[in-house]
TrEMBL record:
Protein name as annotated: 3'(2'),5'-bisphosphate nucleotidase CysQ
Organism, scientific name: Hyphomicrobium nitrativorans NL23
GO molecular function, one term: magnesium ion binding
Keywords: Cell inner membrane, Cell membrane, Hydrolase, Magnesium, Membrane, Metal-binding
Gene Ontology biological-process annotations: 3'-phosphoadenosine 5'-phosphosulfate metabolic process; phosphatidylinositol phosphate biosynthetic process; sulfate assimilation
Length: 287
């Protein structure tokens, strides 16, 4: 390894272990990605269809380019798997640590004019999402992990020029203890698997909220809902940031057999059906 490569690798290792510094370094890029999306949302965008028949727009691509540049500067040398690059067949060799980028999660919602879309960066180490940052520009909210067991939310707008987490009001994210007789459940608005109803038949559900994007993880992380169930396919970049934030807030994400959702297991990077729990997994009881 050449001296420069050694130095860069060491620098990356330091940066990716220090979540507050990583969050500060990524913040301007995440905000810039959100600003690009807001600009295209106001102007209107042409919708293209990807080979997997999901929609994509110029906003997805421009936002992704900004995030890739930000990661190259903030964490040089750490591989990045990003949704639109991956769709074009460009996936790097992943080591034990890599970033997952979804520049515009909830593209269907974005196209419809809904505010339920997000910018997402997750960091996976040894198959586990450990760091995540999610920004919802219309909602004006940013969610980020600042350490093991610490995730925060802050109100933030696209036109902030010198954003810094160090100087702003942060709300600690903490999940709530579920009321097993009156559960609040979150599920996808755009992707309704019929089997969700069958799954929920085992639980005493008081309210089902449908929503778009990784904001569903954030609702559970902030203690507004008890779990998010997703039985249809998702990609690893849809879930890594949300899972890291939820885990730091007291929750967990499991496959339907109760095992933790882990990453880097398959070539296609498709997640199995999962549930994002506010606390420990809840066994079905109601029949
Ligand atoms: N057949 C499929 N395979 C992989 N991921 C899928 C999929 N159908 C939907 N998704 C994922 O579900 C996400 C949207 O879910 P929701 O509407 O609940 O937020 C999409 O994110 P993108 O908008 O980033 O493409 C997409 O990645
Ligand atoms: Mg997505």
């Amino acid at each position: 390894m050449q001296p420069e490569r050694v130095e860069r690798a060491n620098q990356s290792a330091m940066t990716t272990n220090d979540f507050p510094s990583l969050a500060e370094a990524l913040l301007p890029w995440v905000l810039a990605a959100g600003a690009v999306e807001m600009r295209h949302r106001a102007a209107g965008v042409a919708v293209e269809t990807k080979p997997d028949s999901s929609p994509v727009t110029v906003a997805d691509r421009e936002a992704e380019a900004l995030l890739l540049e930000g990661l190259r500067i903030a964490a040089p040398g750490v591989p990045v798997v990003a949704e639109e690059c991956a769709a074009a067949g460009d996936v790097p060799v992943k080591g034990s640590a890599y970033f997952l980028v979804d520049p515009l999660d909830g593209t269907r919602e974005f196209i419809k004019g809904s505010g339920e879309f997000t910018v997402n960066i997750g960091l996976v180490v040894d198959g586990v999402p450990v760091f995540g940052i999610i920004y919802a520009p219309v909602v004006g909210a940013l969610f980020v992990t600042l350490g093991a067991g610490r995730a925060v939310e802050t109100a933030i707008s696209v036109d902030e020029h010198a954003p810094s987490l160090a100087t702003r009001t942060l709300s600690e994210l903490a999940t709530r203890a579920p009321d097993l007789d009156a559960l609040t459940v979150v599920t996808s608005r755009s992707h309704r698997a019929g089997s969700v109803e069958a799954f929920l038949a085992g639980y005493a559900v008081a309210e089902i909220r449908r929503g778009g994007s990784s904001l569903k993880f954030c609702q559970v992380a902030r203690g507004d809902a008890d779990f998010y169930v997703r039985l249809g396919p998702t990609n690893e970049w849809d879930t890594a940031a949300g899972q890291a934030i939820l885990a730091a807030a007291g929750g967990c994400v499991t496959a339907l057999d109760g095992t933790p959702l882990t990453y880097g297991n398959t070539q296609d990077m498709i997640n199995p059906p999962f549930v994002a729990w506010g606390r420990a997994p809840i066994a079905p009881s109601k029949r």
